[in-house]
Design goal:
This protein is of the alpha/beta class. It has a single domain, classed as Rossmann fold (3-Layer(aba) Sandwich). The chain is 31% helix and 17% strand. The protein has a seven-stranded parallel beta sheet with strand order 1-10-9-6-2-3-5, with helices on one face. Strands 4-8-7 form a three-stranded antiparallel beta sheet. The longest helix has 18 residues, at 7-24. The model has no long low-confidence stretch (mean pLDDT 97). The structure holds 2-amino-2-deoxy-6-O-phosphono-alpha-D-glucopyranose. 2-amino-2-deoxy-6-O-phosphono-alpha-D-glucopyranose binds at residues 33-37, 64-65, 130-132, 138-139, 159, 163.
């Protein structure tokens, strides 16, 4: 657990972990996340790419989750977010960027397909995570099986409310998602969770000091051999 002063320091520290990873292994398989927390980290990676400190041209990426029912061209889809926040600004081959298909005709088959793609890529070297106020990782809401794999998951009211800020009033907001499972996340060789702000303090306390329980999906990281939590003082305030 790395506790830093503020969100800017968290983003910089997190970006450096990814920069070192890419300098060590140019063809790394990265697990990526959405939400507001990783945005500054992505800006750090874009800057490092522009400064030629790192290249993405051999990198493969897998995103954690996607809204079910949104096409990748929808501005609230996570595919769109990733293009805007990272992929459009670095030298990555877009064909090597994978996000669960929110517009799949057969979502259940698509979940297995996603697992197969991760496996075919050789597994994830380093997985970036944010955390929901209720302790969710990806869209693994409380009560998610600790060994779960990529699947369709219903969102809780708390998560729908938290994410409503991104949708226009009256706009359709999905209640379902496709998310990597907790078991899928735990298979990554290294996991980096970022959390900032007081709103995350309860979730961080439950993750670090609470019991291993499906009631707090992030507590499953207690089982991982190489998991680092990079958090600011506000998110750490209840430890
Ligand atoms: C969404 C995503 C999560 C993310 C969470 C927190 O629910 N599915 O992966 O961690 O939001 O987002 P934020 O970083 O905006 O607080």
């Amino acid at each position: 657990i790395v506790i830093l002063k503020d969100s800017a320091s968290v983003a910089e520290y997190g970006a450096n972990i990814f920069i070192k990873q890419l300098q060590k292994k140019a063809d790394s398989v990265l697990g990526l996340a959405t939400g507001s927390t990783p945005v500054s980290l992505y800006q750090g990676l874009i800057a490092a790419n522009k400064a030629k400190q790192i290249s993405f041209n051999q990198v493969t990426t897998f995103n954690l989750d996607e809204y079910l029912g949104l096409e990748g061209t929808h501005p609230q889809s996570y595919r769109y977010f990733m293009n805007e926040q990272l992929f459009d600004h670095v030298d990555i081959d877009k064909a090597q960027t994978f996000v669960p298909p929110g517009d799949a005709e057969n979502p259940i088959a698509a979940c297995q397909g996603y697992e197969d793609q991760i496996k075919a890529a050789g597994g994830i070297d380093i997985q970036l995570l944010g955390i929901g106020r209720n302790g969710h990782i990806g869209f693994n809401e409380p009560s998610s099986g600790l060994m779960s794999r990529t699947r369709v998951k219903t969102l809780t009211k708390a998560t729908i409310d938290d994410n409503a800020r991104f949708f226009e009033a009256g706009e359709y907001q999905p209640h379902l998602s496709i998310t990597m499972g907790i078991g899928t996340i735990l298979d990554a060789k290294k996991v980096v969770l970022l959390a900032t702000g007081e709103a995350k303090a309860d979730a961080i306390k439950a993750t670090v000091e609470g019991a291993l329980t499906a009631a707090c999906p992030a507590s499953a990281l207690q089982l991982h051999q190489d998991a680092v939590l990079v958090i600011d003082e506000a998110a750490a305030s209840k430890l």
